Amino acid sequence: MALLPLLFTFAFIFLLYQLYQKLRFKLPPGPRPWPVVGNLYDIKPVRFRCFADWAQTYGPIISVWFGSTLNVIVSNSELAKEVLKEHDQQLADRHRSRSAAKFSREGQDLIWADYGPHYVKVRKVCTLELFSPKRLEALRPIREDEVTAMVESIFKDCTNPDNMGKSFLVKKYLGAVAFNNITRLAFGKRFVNSEGVIDEQGQEFKAIVANGLKLGASLAMAEHIPWLRWLFPLEEEAFAKHGARRDCLTRAIMEEHTLARQKSGGAKQHFVDALLTLQDKYDLSEDTIIGLLWDMITAGMDTTAISVEWAMAELIKNPRVQQKAQEELDQVIGLKRVLTETDFSNLPYLQCVAKEALRLHPPTPLMLPHRANANVKIGGYDIPKGSNVHVNVWAVARDPAVWKNPSEFRPERYLEEDVDMKGHDFRLLPFGAGRRVCPGAQLGINLVTSMLGHLLHHFYWAPPSGLSPEEIDMAENPGLVTYMRTPLQAMPRPRLPAQLYKRVAVDM
Ligand code: HEM
């Protein structure tokens, strides 16, 4: 009972606060907020679609209240440019939910760090060291090993007589590539042996990732209503335990690397080795090294697998495009060898296919929110300091004002007009743009293109029997990262000589 007057008081304060914001600032238009909860209960689960719908009613820049926090969503390329180029520096902070704050030890990593000296330093480590073209090239054998392992595994399954007429869950194979690639790249570890059995450390790693997701999801609503947070105390103990478990595994791996380096006298290319050998040069704390390693896992694992799953769905729905990509592969690679990343420059159509998939299905359709560190004007409206700004890159990439037949999957459009997708053309922003642009963009593009190239060169792809291409469910699952609502099932059929389906394993 004592709660009721308290709630009324909070509601009253909220209304006063909103009135103050309205009188002081010219805020972007948007759906009418309710006291205390704002628009939280009006937002449909697939947020970027909901925001795109609201943009149709209120215009390309809208205000949406998550509880008492103002969120501004922009949905066209001009406003995206204002956010990510003209006002980039004032809009480069991050909003940290309580769980993100815990996971990142108050932004001591990269993803959750505010823009400031620490951010500039770790970003420099990423640009000059971790994602330098030299290191990307040095780590190429790992990517090629994993992609050929995927081909071998699909081949085994689809040529097994027990599986005649069966369809396969595509994401199972893509997820394995993404998982092994990222753990090898970051930790120098393949936790899974050639029989597909995961070792003890790998099981611990998977359990930590799953637990992190569970903890992150457990706070959702209360997160946005600071006055009510005391009703939903953060599970301090659970977070502390999670952090300790993560640190313990990471430290064990770091020690293994230190010992190996002392023994061999040389450092390897993996991120963990790179960070440990650069620790003094860049004055990196242990929390920052651990934070960076886990940032790469969080940001780099699902994004690539999801992009390829969507691309494969489009290729099965559009047999014309699939055939054209295969013709190009046959012409350039032939039927006697497998693709490598050095072939990319001779495969323009394949590159266009990857780009078109990332246009229609960016895995992070609202990017990550940027927080204003000052009062800013965007599109003639005020964005008060502390608001969160989202760029709906999904909506921008489907805007009929800048794209011809936007919902059509037509890779040829980039042969007619080259469009950059790494942050220079504000019509196509799957990796964002500006100072917070994805540092793993080139790595992501290489892996997505390589996976697609191998899948198309080695197999014909069709929908499961009884399902027509048009019937493939192209709806999205809710969440920050956009999985297909119905995971893609498909029927692969080999198209190359059997000896080309062997994994090319490398030990590094
Ligand atoms: C297809 C694959 C990928 C896509 C579409 C993608 C997209 C994005 C986007 C949209 C952002 C947010 C940019 C912003 O806030 O403005 C981001 C940030 C980030 N991505 Fe990626 N990404 C991909 C792959 C990767 C990979 C493979 C890695 C690393 C191994 C990675 C590491 C990161 C990191 C560390 C950030 C945070 C950057 C910051 O806050 O400054 N990403 N990515």
UniProtKB/TrEMBL annotation:
Species for this entry: Ilex paraguariensis
Binding positions for heme per the UniProt entry: C438
GO cellular component: membrane
Lineage, top ranks: Eukaryota, Viridiplantae, Streptophyta, Embryophyta, Tracheophyta
PROSITE patterns: CYTOCHROME_P450
Subcellular location: Membrane
Molecular function GO terms recorded: metal ion binding; monooxygenase activity
Cofactor(s) needed by this chain: heme
Membrane topology, from the record: Single-pass membrane protein
Keyword flag Ion transport: no
InterPro entries: Cyt_P450 (IPR001128), Cyt_P450_CS (IPR017972), Cyt_P450_E_grp-I (IPR002401), Cyt_P450_sf (IPR036396)
Alphabetical UniProt keywords: Heme, Iron, Membrane, Metal-binding, Monooxygenase, Oxidoreductase, Transmembrane, Transmembrane helix
Keyword Metal-binding: yes
Alphabetical list of SUPFAM superfamilies matching this protein: Cytochrome P450
Family listed: Belongs to the cytochrome P450 family.
Protein name: p-coumarate 3-hydroxylase
Primary residence: membrane
